[in-house]
Design goal:
There is one protein chain. The protein is α/β, with parallel strands linked by helices. The protein has a single domain, classed as 3-Layer(aba) Sandwich (Rossmann fold), CATH 3.40.50.720. The protein has a 7-stranded parallel sheet with strand order 3-2-1-4-5-7-11, sandwiched between helices. Strand 4, helix 4 and strand 5 form a beta-alpha-beta unit. Helix 1 packs across helix 7.
Length: 311
């Protein structure tokens, strides 16, 4: 993917995952990086790292989109959806369709589009039946972007992410902060994906675009959250918090909503189609890598600024 021609990545929503992707592209060399944020301080930090940065929000479209997007070869959309779908689609789809240099467009979605399967497995061919506002919003956004592939041949690919974690954003951090709780809901498990593996999937897709494809991004081991927290405590040499039963725990509505979905995500397609070998096949390897990265001082803009995902 290095090639001789200059490549240019533009991220709508230069958050955690985009930040790590940008870091990987800088390591490869030969890439121009640009993106949006709704946080003026984050914009300043992006510029300090050599990233062209623009303010963008639901009510603040890009001032001069054709100028700001000129020369973009790779476009990644990571903006959070609302009830109307994706704000980037609503505000700038027509501008994006006018770009003549685009080789690849990625939309970061969520495995929430599958809804609850009572612990069963889902793959990219499974029926989409979200049972949460978050999942319904993501499904609408997916449909919007895929319509541009079907109707206008925009080279769109969809990436459905399981729970994202990595340095500065893992169970290690919640344990250190004293906010980790070990909740036991029998039979329940979460699928996860380390940000390193998100990046390698995106790089593989960018190298061999397959417009119209959808990929699940999850590791090999769906696991209860209390096991992850216990392992984080072990790595940090701390005593795990007590195990609380789900029915007896006083949980915030947002936390309880995550437990309403119980499914396991199949990830064979990223391996078979894109040739990806997961660097962190389970949370055990992933948390160990997080700790090593933190100890080495590796730090991304999003992690340093406290900005997660988002715009």
């Amino acid at each position: 993917m290095s090639g001789s021609a200059q490549k240019s990545l533009f991220c709508f929503g230069y958050g955690y995952s985009c930040d790590w992707l940008g870091h990987a592209l800088r390591q490869l060399g030969g890439w121009n990086l640009a993106g949006t944020t709704r946080d003026p301080e984050k914009r300043r930090q992006m510029k300090e790292h050599g990233i062209r940065a623009f303010l963008f929000d639901y009510d603040q479209p890009l001032e001069d989109p054709l100028l700001f997007l000129r020369g973009t070869t790779h476009l990644l959309i990571s903006t959070p959806a609302d009830d109307d779908g994706d704000p980037t689609f609503h505000l700038h789809a027509e501008d994006i369709l006018r770009l003549e240099t685009l080789e690849w467009v990625g939309y970061l979605s969520s495995t929430a589009v599958y809804g609850d399967r009572e612990g069963g497995w889902v793959d990219e061919e499974s029926e989409l039946r979200p049972n949460s506002k978050r999942g319904s919003r993501r499904l609408r956004a997916e449909q919007q972007w895929m319509s541009l592939w079907r109707d206008y041949d925009l080279p769109v690919e969809i990436f459905r992410l399981a729970g994202i974690y990595g340095p500065g954003r893992s169970a290690l951090d919640s344990v250190r902060a004293g906010v980790a709780r070990r909740i036991n809901k029998p039979g329940h498990a979460f699928s996860r994906i380390h940000v390193d593996d998100i990046v390698q999937v995106l790089l593989a897709s960018m190298q061999q675009p397959r417009p119209g494809n959808v990929y699940n991004l999850a590791d090999d081991r769906a696991a209860p959250s209390h096991e992850v927290i216990a392992h984080a405590c072990e790595l940090l040499g701390l005593t795990p918090p007590p195990l609380l039963q789900y029915d007896e725990a006083d949980l915030a509505p947002i936390t309880r909503s995550f437990y309403s979905d119980n499914k396991r995500i199949r990830n064979e397609k990223i391996k078979q189609t894109l040739g990806v070998n997961l660097r962190h096949p389970t949370f055990v390897e992933g948390l160990r890598a997080c700790l090593a990265a933190e100890e080495s001082g590796l730090e991304m803009i999003a992690a340093a600024s406290g900005v997660e995902g988002g715009m």
